[in-house]
Write a structure and sequence with these properties.
With 208 residues, the chain is α+β, with helices and mostly antiparallel strands. It has 7 helices and 4 strands; from the N terminus they run E-H-E-H-E-E-H-H-H-H-H.
Length: 208
């Protein structure tokens, strides 16, 4: 198995997290995202015409979207069936909703991070405002989950829904987005980092 990877990418980190939780062996293929912009090179566009990372190759199978890779790995390699539970259609739909939500986090909180850390030219005020709108939704959901005795986005156990949303929420402060006013989110981040097999990436700092 090969992962086309950039160490500072939250989307690549999602895949590294799940590969670690599943204890799967894989080969990292580093991509010089910045400053080299290797993901836009002719050679890489043959691997992913969209010019995006991560990309996972598993034998002859090639998958080029972070959320799709999470579904593939969990459905193929998680013998417990816990990371992508399929006991009911409603549970599958709930996990899928949070995978889609994570894409919106990428377009807002991650965009703000690209602006502040790598100098991307974008509307930073709109990115931060959009991120806060999504964080309020996430905060309310997690608070209700806790009230119902559930610690995670889609039930009593962590799933790929949590993995998908975690990186760019935990990295939000890199884009000037303060998490102090989101106590349920901060508790969720601490629970996530306490999971067996968790490993961090640069920029994720968890207060005790």
């Amino acid at each position: 198995m090969k992962l086309y990877d950039y160490v500072l990418s939250g989307n690549c980190y999602k895949i590294r997290l799940l590969l670690g939780f599943l204890d799967l062996d894989y080969e990292k293929r580093p991509v010089d995202f910045f400053p080299g912009r290797e993901h836009k090179s002719d050679a890489f566009l043959k691997i992913n015409p969209l010019g995006q990372i991560p990309v996972l190759e598993d034998g002859e199978i090639r998958i080029r979207d972070a959320q799709a890779i999470l579904i593939y790995l969990a459905s193929r390699y998680d013998k417990s069936g816990e990371w992508f539970p399929g006991q009911s259609h409603s549970q599958i739909a709930e996990v899928a909703q949070w995978l889609a939500f994570s894409d919106m986090i990428t377009s807002t909180a991650s965009a703000a991070r690209l602006h502040d850390m790598l100098g991307y030219n974008l509307d930073i005020d709109a990115a931060r405002a959009g991120a806060h709108r999504l964080l309020r939704v996430l905060e309310d959901h997690l608070a209700h989950q806790e009230f119902d005795g559930h610690d995670w986005l889609a039930g009593r156990r962590p799933t790929i829904a949590d993995i998908s949303c975690f990186p760019y929420v935990a990295l939000a402060e890199d884009g000037g987005i303060d998490l102090f006013c989101y106590p349920a989110i901060l508790r969720w981040i601490r629970r996530f980092t306490a999971l067996d097999g968790f490993h961090s990436m640069p920029g994720i700092n968890v207060s005790p």
